[in-house]
Amino acid sequence: MSIFYSKVPEFAIIDFEFGSCGRDRLILVSGAIMGQYQPEIITKLEGRALHLQENRPITDDEWKQLVRHFQHIFKDNPTSLYPVLAQIYDSDHSLSPNLTQPQIKGQLDRYDAILTWEGSTDKKILELLNINRPVFSLRGWDLHMDGHFVLLLIDYGSNEPIASIPIGKHIKRGRALKLDEAHTLLCEDLYYHGGLEAHDPRADVQWTRCLFLQLYKVHKNTINDAVRAKQNKIEPVEL
Questions:
Q1: Which of 48, 114, 166, 176 qualifies as a FRET site for 97, CA 20 to 30 Å off?
Q2: CB 104 within 8 A of CB 131
Q3: Among 5-19, 87-101, 206-220, whose mean pLDDT is lowest?
């Protein structure tokens, strides 16, 4: 006899560092993957930067063009430029390269859904990598333009909000919080989550997971149901 049950979905939390070499050429520089229930394991994605549209490592000339691209973007912000360039260099000189489409897909296909922070480009990268999983995104947003922010979970397929919790009051220009701002306001253990820099994808996945777990504690059933609705399947268990 068999019965059916709804498997508790597991999210992969991801972050991609990317740039471009000319118009409409998206280059994946590095990334990180962290499982929802694996707080001590972060898989760093690194190697020669990947030309996503053509699914190949970039050439030496393209690598130099990529560096110039970031130098132009951050020409007035050297404190951001240096860690970005360090990511490019360190990734390119990895002793254990895994920045390839088959390896990234193999990592993410084990999960039921994918979670990003403000991940519109991340979703495009996933599509170019031929990864077909439901994608959800977190964002810190001032709903009423009064300085009171909420943490929102959004279904990137329908662009519909799934769940939210209050973050608190924060004075800044604009309605969106950066990841480090939201994490500083909401995290209960900043010391534990310290030691990593912005623009390091390992920091981004750790901070994103921290925020997600606080939302998940409040809206676990709603979030799980949203993933199951996207999967539209039930797995049998043999007795």
A1: 114
A2: yes
A3: 5-19
